[in-house]
Amino acid sequence: MSDISFTQNRELSWLQFDQRVLEEANDKSVPLLERLRFFSIFDTNLEEFFMVRVGSLTDLKNLKKKPVDNKSGMTSDEQIDAILTECVDLYRKKDQVYNQLVDDLKVDGINLLKVSELSEKDKKYVEYYFNTKIEPILNFQIVDRVHPFPRLPNLALSVVFSLRNHDDKVSNNVGIIHVPDRIKRYLKINDRSFVFIEDIIKEYGYQVFEGYEVGNKYIISLTRNTDISYDDDDFDIDQDFRSYMKTQLKKRKRLHPVRLEVDSDLNEESIEFLKTQFDLDRKNIFLTKSLMQGGFLFGLVEDLPENIIKKYTYEPFSPLPSAMVDPKERIIDQIDKKDIFLSFPYESMDPVIHLLDEAAEDENVVSIKITLYRIAHDSKIAKALIKAVENGKDVTVLMELRARFDEDNNIFWSSKLEEAGCKILFGFDSYKTHSKICLITRVDEDGNVSYITQVATGNYNEKTAKLYTDFSLMTASEPIGQDAKELFDNIQLGNLEGEYDNLLVSPKSMPEGLNKLIDEQIEVQKNSGNGYIRIKVNSVSDRRLIDKLSEASNAGVKIDMLVRGICCILPGISNRTENLNIYQVVGRFLEHSRVYQFGHGMDSKLYISSADFMTRNIRNRMEVAIPIYDDEVKKRILDYLDLMFSDDVKIRKLLSNGQYTKVQNINNIDAQKTLIGRAKKRNILVEEERTANKVAKKNKLKRLSEPMTDERKKLVSEKNYFQRILDIFRRK
User: Fold this and answer.
1) Burial of 458 (0-12, 13-18, 19+ CB in 10 A)
2) Do both 702 and 578 map to the same domain?
3) How many domains does the chain have?
């Protein structure tokens, strides 16, 4: 049995993270409409949590041998009970935050209204809209002795009516109207006022049930288990993997319910009715007076007048050109001279796209190999790869079809790429490929082979590169290129046991390498008392790494960690994690970059990586971490980490009891805001320098074109004379 005195359950830790997102929705220092967006993110996060995590735990309940969580000692049943108990309080907080949001919006003239709150004039307009636009497309049904309760799909939003026949004294019949997904979830009453479609149906839907008297009416939202297991036993080796994935995805619509939300206090009879229909326990049914399925709120915000959006959202910011990239010179040529580092979303992803575009056209480029996990729907990356193969390059793409909720898009692009002539690989049978690595191979006129390697912490996705904080390194390093070549060779052989001199690659060399790096700091601590580890990741759950970090802490190594989401290790536990500090930042952008630092300052060993400290990443996926050798790049990353850890506005500190607390606001540093400011300043300085150089060059050309005066000829002659004398002495 693992020592659980300094660890906590991953699911409960995740709920703490989502609560932190909800706090942003309640933070009055955050622009008003951004708070609405944070509420939307919180709600969407919770949906996915129930679909995937509660879904997988529900599956585990059916196993004969009950697995036990090695961070909390809980069985799957106990974890579900703990989650559902925690969610009661979370739903209470959700309703409080939403009501506060609605009130704050109203103060500023933005109205999220119930039909009952409308004027008589607006009610007539809404009823007309219902009769002309909603009612004609409604899918509704009576449930009685001869009409069974319909099977609702995942995330179905429905309105339920209690019905009684005029002739019946008692009736248990109900009517169900499915909220159509072919229209917007809201109706604009005016530029600043909205009413939700489900509330309109709740108010006027009785009209479709002619011949019945309507009693209670309430809105429900059903969440199903969508944690599909891509079990190799289900896979016929002769079957095309894309077809297999398409079949598996269809299962999502008909998996078992795990959560039901209702918007009204129901009597026990109604509760029992719902429990029976959905085969749910009472604890899986949640009352919420606030909005359900709030993902559409992003669209609602964009539907407001432009001046309102500008006033109540973050100051617009678009990724800026990198100061490390000269727009007038080929990216390939620049990488040959020096490593290029990009920090998203503060800097644009365009150089990565330009690199692939150049490679597609470069006569010396013979091949491009890349791993793709999530890409944009209208992917410039994929289009560049298609252009490359059309130009005769050998293009190999490892497309991971099992990227959760992006499977359809990846199936689509894998087909398009294959049709264009790319060689498509689907990864390994039992291991997802989550790495973000690209290798460009060149052969010059003399037959010399060289490489450009690009490794990133985030996906090749132009959309998320504007929303997530990530790092990208492009290098012409020969040792790195050799490792990358070896990695892709192993991929094509289905070999996960490769050995590499520089790269850390899971599931083999990464856990071994991390253990070695931690051991080195333990040894440094023994010898000099100066051992240090600093980690920035999204999640920490791997039991063996947790124990290794505890070992380092016990040896006296100082450890600082910035963990955005799940964190199963607890700091400040006597004889376990006394030298460990853990922080969390939730801000405007989603913190997504992974950085591992071993040692202090410029003498440290520094890596950027695609891998979190989770078992699935370290031991059950193919991930890549790349060392940072370039001093300029290393300094940039270290400065970035220094800033993130100095945040005293958006940062929270994890306590030994698993709760997060604010740190003392001394310097009022919002790290993300500061990085935006730095990016803008850096862009201005670069533009000024380039303008100055352009003017200087122009002036020089002007001087050279002017006829020489006698005085100037004399000066030039004298300068040449003294230069010849100096050259003679140098030769001696």
Assistant:
1) buried
2) no
3) 4
